[in-house]
Amino acid sequence: MSFDALCWRSGRLHILDQRRLPAEEVWIEASTWQDVAVAISDMALRGAPLIGIAAAYGMALAQQSGDGLGIASKGLGATRPTAVNLFAALERVSQANDMLAEARAIEEDERSNNDAIAAAGASLITDRTSVVTICNTGSLATAGVGTALGIIRRAFQLGKIERIFACETRPRLQGLRLTAWELQQDGIPFQVIPDGAVAPLLAGGEVGFAIAGADRIAANGDTANKIGTLNLATIGDAFQVPLVIAAPTTTIDTRSSTGADITIEERAAEEITTIDGVRVAPEGCPVWNPAFDITPSDLISAIVTENGVHRPPYAFEDQV
Ligand code: MRU
User: Fold this and answer.
1) Quick check: pTM over 0.85?
2) Phi/psi of residue 232, nearest 5 degrees
3) If you take atom 15 of ligand 1, which residue's CA is the nearest one?
4) What is the mean pLDDT of the chain?
5) pLDDT band for position 182 (50/70/90)?
6) Probe ligand 1: pick from 46, 139, 182, max atoms within 8 Å of CB?
7) Are the C-beta atoms of 201 and 300 separated by less than 8 Å?
8) Fewest beta carbons less than 10 Å away: which of 25, 129, 175, 180?
């Protein structure tokens, strides 16, 4: 029920190119930290924990080639601003003598974090029900079973899942392309919905929980995650569908007191104005394309980390 989205072999980082999925499985061979930086910023790999793991391996490549480590760390840190796992991993690996060993340790830690998150999160689901999720939070987004998708996998094994509703997740379609691919491989019953169908879905009463991942969680529990998560939260609040956030503690940023301190990445207009490279919007069409939104903590019924289930009011400290 899990697979690897990257692997270190023969002194190189091999990265499954998620932009090509599900049509084809193409692996990129990264031999420099710059290759890794490009893979992260162009979203060949994505998902907060996986971005952190890849950046750590990027530092290992820099060390192996004798490149300036400060420059490499700065370059890797400039790729995507919201996922705090990136900065946590860079900080951790920079304190190590053997960066490759540290990158491997970070990967293993995320793998076991996910097992703990899956077990704790699945225990929240008491009666068999359907769950809605957004983006991709599975093996393609981290190491191991995933965060929100790890909970879904575990709950399914325990017979608690009726059906998963996966938001297609415009504009990069992580739900349609990646989550659907992972759910299909595991034989978990699911339907993809257009993002705009969240309201009628939750109004229908079939869904017991919304479960999502996170890119950065502030000390007060405010959570940055894929654009559309705030829709799940507010619509869920209107129809009594609780939102559960699943993330390792590496996603908690105690330097951000509230969501207002979190930088939200804005991506290129072409992600909206084109489909498969073909322009569908009028020439010069103005676009606002935030990649993430911030859900206020009072709309989050639980935050599940490897340390267990946290309930509001949230007050995360350095050792959570
Ligand atoms: O832009 P992406 O695909 O990197 O965004 C990913 C998400 O928003 C995920 O929900 C989050 O990183 C958690 S992945 C376990």
Assistant:
1) yes
2) -60, -40
3) 137
4) 97
5) very high
6) 46
7) no
8) 25
> Is the C-beta atom of 92 inside 6 A of ligand 1?
no
Same domain, 165 and 78: no
| Residue keyed to tokens 């957004």 | 134
Task: Kindly state whether residue 273 falls inside one of the protein's structural domains.
Answer: yes
Ligand 1 in reach of 49 Cβ (< 6 A): yes
pLDDT of residue 320 exceeding 50, the answer is no
User: In this structure, is the dihedral angle defined by the CA atoms of residues 18, 19, 21 and 27, taken in order, positive or negative?
Assistant: negative
Q: Provide the residue range defining the domain that includes 94.
A: 6-112
Is the pLDDT at 237 greater than 90? The verdict is yes
For residues 65-77, average pLDDT: 98
Residue spans of beta strands (DSSP E) within the chain: 6-9, 12-16, 27-30, 129-133, 161-167, 190-193, 207-212, 216-218, 223-226, 243-246, 252-253, 274-275, 278-279, 292-295, 302-305, 308-310
In the predicted model, is pLDDT for residue 171 greater than 60?
Answer: yes
Ligand 1 and 135: CB distance under 6 A: yes
CA of 66 to the centre of ligand 1 (A): 32
Q: Is the CB of 167 under 6 A from ligand 1?
A: no
315 inside domain = no
Mean pLDDT of 32-53: 98
pLDDT tens digits along 106-150: 999 999 999 999 999 999 999 999 999 999 999 999 999 999 999
- Known catalytic residues are 215
Count the domains in the chain.
2
User: Domain of 147: which CATH number?
Assistant: 3.40.50.10470
Out of 64, 97, 112, a domain closes at 112
Q: What is the CATH number of the domain that holds 72?
A: 1.20.120.420
Q: Is residue 319 part of a domain?
A: no
226 lines ligand 1 (CB under 6 A): yes
